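Sat 14:20. Reprocessing the chain from the morning session after the first attempt stalled halfway. Input below, unchanged.
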Amino acid sequence: MAINFNPIVDVLFDGTNWDIITRYVKVDDGINIPQRGREDNQDEIQTGSMSLTLLNDGRFTPGLASSPHYPNVIKGKRIRVRVVYWSTNMVTNPTMEAGTTDWAAAGTVVPVLTQSATHVQAGSQAMLVTWGTGGTGPAAQTVVHGLEIGEHYTASAYVWVPAGGSPAVRLGVTGLSTGTASSTTGAFQRVTYSFTATNTTHTLQVSPTTAATSGHQVWVDSVQVEKGAAATTFSATPAQVFTRFDGYVNAWPTEWNGGINGIVETRITASDLLKKLGGLAPMRSLLEEEMLALKPDAYYTLSEDTDATSAGDTSGHGQQSMKVYQVSGAGGTIAFAADDGPGTDDLPAPRFTPFSLGQGKGLRADLRASTGTVVIACWLKTNLAGRDFLQICNRFTGVGGAAFVLNVDSADGTLRGTAYLGEDGNSGDYGGGPGLTQNLADGKNHLVVVQLRDTGSVFANVDGVDGVAGFAFGSVVSDAVDLYDRIVAGGFKDPTGSFSGANLFDGVLSHIWVKRMASMPDWTFAFSAGSGQTESTTDRFLRLYGLLGLTGTVRGSTITQISAQVSGGKDPLQAFRDVAAVEAGLIFASRDGASLVMECRNFRYNLASSVTLDTLNFQEDLRWSDDDQPMINDYTTRRDGGADQRVINQASIDKYETVYADGDSQPWATDDDALAVSQWTVANGADPPPRVTNVTVKVDATDLWASVLGLDISHVITLDDLPPESPLPTARLHVEGYSETITVGSHTITFNTSPAEINDVWQLGVAGHSELGATTRFGL
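Finished this time. Tokens:
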């Protein structure tokens, strides 16, 4: 069966719509993907890259106002390379057997497209198009890729127009013309349209020849676009589009090939998402990232150095810093960096020590005035109950002042809130009705959050748990909430002086957070990040990509735990690589979109082969390797706060009379998790089998092209019917990475491979993998 292919290159210039630029690509110079994945199973996944050359009539010149893409020809624009393969039919969904995928409704009054078995020309399904009333340009349409400019093509489709008023239909190509209208009702008729391609991509439409009325219909089936001036026998084999690269343009250089009057070219390189992650600013601690992810109006970590007299806002909104001030009389201290806040942020925190209950120092900042429901939060650590620790108020300090004060209840250490407005006051103990029973005076770090609603109700959250109810403070809060424009920590009096004097905090405060918002945020993730809870590697992966606004996919599953992040300072790519290292898995950029893939180590266990190739299906020389590069028979894992754990394989050491030692230090949550990685590494490296390191396939020369193009990192290739001199007659190989070249009439991929047999493990109930000690071994 003859096979055809052509590349598709498009750029997301405006951030919303893909602009196809294939016609400007010098395909004869090659579209090159020199690297995706890694060289072998011991390497780290590297940033993927792509290069190609564009003919530049000015449209790819940065800053050129006459470019149709101005002002969006800038570095960092998303670009993707796809390839379309077909035998005869260039339509990707010609029969509707799997629904109306790849078809879209067009026009100012769009029709409704559905799958239907009522009238079918071939197979069991067709597409039912139900027209609306009137409108401009109503149509059902599909994009056809891989066309050659100047080549003649014929489109055809079988249509079933019901009698009784539904309009005749015709085929056409947007921007070109339309064909002859259908003339039959109550039966299928093949309509055609011949055209000369003016672009590498055209949109084929089925449209009514006269104005339709709501409820008019047509069934469409067996759609075909083919080379030539006439329609031939319909082929149900669809064209298929495969994404080969998705990433970001590094630069748009403009250069002249052959002198200043020569051909203007733009030779671009692009890199996948891993480069972008590696170039982002270092992440803060996981706790800070979670607190910032909730979009505060003001956020004070209070992590300044020992000589500080104020604390800055790190929300990015430029609020006033919190400054030390004296509360009554003299004495007391706020010692910056004298203690620690939550143990997972690796930040110092100030120690508040009053001179007496009524004399000491506090911190305060004036906030920009704003209105509506407000949420305030902080972390605290104290051994003393009965003390006030956080206040939001207005700047007026005499009679008429408005404030809400958070207090550690003197009776049981639970949260207490007191509202003031002029001479009025109201108090609520959250250890009672709302059911928040945590003792805040136990010397441990606690996250406390309060929401003051403009209705007068006040709700609280302690350690990530919402109270079961709130308190109705009434007008003392509802009339005051719009006045709040100051945040105060650790030391203050009530605004009127008539309810109580100063009740100064003794302990540690950090991560003070303020935001005007109508609903209480979800504090689950912030608390888990600050409390030192461990989580699975997959949960950490999900957490990280959520914080970065990315999407991701997990392959496989895990029970491996990763410790709470102790410190920031790592770029996002390294944070993801830490997760992969703890899991003994992989993190890489998806080929089918700007997203990430996390592969757990068990994804490779007993993975079925995706394609079997014999010597007729792969190119170049076959090379087996059996060197000592992948050997490890002595491995030590080191865990902060835990054990150093060494695993050896004495049989391997004795056999090869050499110790191949290595090790790693990662944030494993438990000694057992770290030990499992040592065991797994030595199990794989003690005596690795001979391996085929590369397999080259000329994709356009094999009838297995669809399976080959579907191969991705970790998928399995089986090589069959190998020469008798090979160590084995067959070889099962994991794909570790690949390089790829697409040129005119040639599409070649060289896969980097490693033995798949090292991931054949004992698996209960799986045929061929449940004979313990016979054919398989334990996975970890």
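The two ends are 45 Å apart (CA to CA).
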